[in-house]
Amino acid sequence: MQIVLIEGDGIGPEVTQAACRVIEAVGLHVEWIKGMAGLPAVERYGEPLPEQTLEMIRRYRVALKGPCTTPVGRGFRSVNVRLRQGLELFASVRPVRSLPGIRTPYNNVDLIVVRENTEGLYAGLEHEVVAGVVESVRLITRAAAERIVRFAFDLARQYGRRKVTFCHKADVMRLSDGLFLQCARTVAEDYPFIEFEEKPIDTLCMELVLDPSAFDVLVMENLFGDVISDLTAGLVGGLGIAPGANYGQRYAIFEAVHGSAPDIAGKGIANPIAIIRSAALMLEYIGRRAEAQRIERAVLTVLQRGEGLTPDLGGNGTTATLTEQIIREL
Ligand code: NAD
Fold it and tell me: Is 9 a catalytic residue?
């Protein structure tokens, strides 16, 4: 089995290696096709996302990806934004669930954040009008809006979810979110057996913090989804454990919600659980559900035991010792 591996930079190589070890240990032999992105690619090719890497993903269809630093102010566009747009990975999916052994204010969170990945303010349409005045375009199209809401409802149906909440700010952004909201309502009519709810994004933030158990599947545009993904990751224990996936019609890339964490890179203390759980989502996608479930169960057992966890989870373990424990549980 051939799968593209993008190690990324910062803590990327440390945590992706951990995920590869876990996949090997669950009994799957993967030939990793290594593609470069992020700072190592800037050094080698003079740009953070070389065309060769995009080509590899087009050829092999699926990639496991570590985080990539976007050098700020050097004229580079974010690797992630370019990957998502270049491969039409229109849906970002982040499952958020309370985990055993992790002390948080709530223990009953079980929701999925579905984020539109290709438009909104992250379309990258910015320009300087005159010196000192810049403008960013918030792009919303009917086609992309309907596509992401339909994706959210199909996901809800597939996983037995009962409610889809569409999040917006249509009272202020009357045209752009007005169109998105109209599209959401139209698509919702095709799924009368799943509850549909509309929620202004500011109200959603407050309600999520007061009672996250009230939510099931959340669907929203790009920037809102980016913010809500981190917020909900925080509700269940932080970025070190939050997995993610980006899906398109033809390709899929699996990556943790977190970034390259330069503050802890190279110290051997990055939490590998987020990328290991992302790898489990990848195995499920390619039809290896049994192996995916074994990995998720092993992670839960290790968390429940609560020994040797990495510092972000209050422990004094390392990336290596935590990975070892997970492998032993498989
Ligand atoms: P970050 O997610 O890298 O780090 C935020 C905080 O969370 C830091 O304190 C970090 O130490 C901690 N953290 C993150 N992942 C962790 C893990 N696995 N284990 C333990 N602690 C962890 O966010 P940032 O600092 O805002 O971004 C750093 C760089 O990463 C930026 O260049 C940004 O553009 C990039 N980034 C990339 C991606 C991606 O490639 N998917 C996503 C987000 C940010």
Answer: no
